[in-house]
Amino acid sequence: MDDRGGIRSSTLPTSFPQERLRTIASHVLQTFNSVRKALMECNELRVDYEALSLQAKRGPKGTMVYLTPLTPTATAELGSACPGLE
Fold first, then answer.
1. CATH homologous superfamily of domain 1-73?
2. Residue 33 host element (H or E)
3. What is the pLDDT of residues 28-60, one digit of tens each?
4. Contacts of residue 67, Cβ cutoff 8 Å, sequence gap at least 6
């Protein structure tokens, strides 16, 4: 994603809700911006949910966000398994 939270590309299935992607991007961007405003250095973020792991790595040309399923049906269960990403 770019520095404004815009999603450049995605490898998730087309059935994955686009609004959910925008919500995840917004949360990641807000977290990195809050850390920067606090004058702290952080280029990587990891959050483990019941069904998946979210890892974000900030780079010079944007941020890569990885969603890794921890269960076979994690992508379908994302809404119920990840509080705060509704």
1. Dynein light chain 2a, cytoplasmic (3.30.450.30)
2. helix 18-37
3. 999 999 999 999 999 999 999 888 899 999 998
4. 12, 24, 52, 53, 54, 75
